[in-house]
Amino acid sequence: MYFASTTGEAMSREDAERVIGEFDGDGDGTLGFGDFVRMVDGGDGKEFDGDLRRAFEMFEEDKGEGCITPRGLQRMLVRLGDRKSLDECTAMIRPFDLDGDGVLDFPEFQRMMN
């Protein structure tokens, strides 16, 4: 089984587990939100914005769609070891969905991450 890296390239299960291990703050084998933020947090603003864009793209259900849907969020959380229902994912998006369209676009994602 292969996973996508933050650059969209194939990543083996072993490599994915190694990356998760590097950022897993509480040792539970999954990346929590704080762990994820630390993973994408770069040194300067440019690097952070690039990492944030790549992270955003990982959550897109259909690549290039330009938004994170509840289903896209659910799919990525499952890959990270955190199973959530579609209703839970919808509820997670709602507070950051500033235009009320039910999805997160990149500016809304940036705001959520900052």
TrEMBL record:
Tell me the organism.
Linum tenue
Gene Ontology MF terms: calcium ion binding
Report what the protein is called.
EF-hand domain-containing protein
Q: Which UniProt keywords apply?
A: Calcium, Metal-binding, Repeat
Is-annotated flag, keyword Secreted? no
Q: Does the keyword Metal-binding apply?
A: yes
- InterPro entries membership: EF-hand-dom_pair (IPR011992), EF_Hand_1_Ca_BS (IPR018247), EF_hand_dom (IPR002048), EF_hand_pair_protein_CML-like (IPR039647)
* Limits of the EF-hand domain: 11-46, 84-114
Listed CDD domains: EFh
Under the heading Gene3D superfamilies, the entry gives: EF-hand (1.10.238.10)
SUPFAM superfamilies, alphabetized? EF-hand (SSF47473)
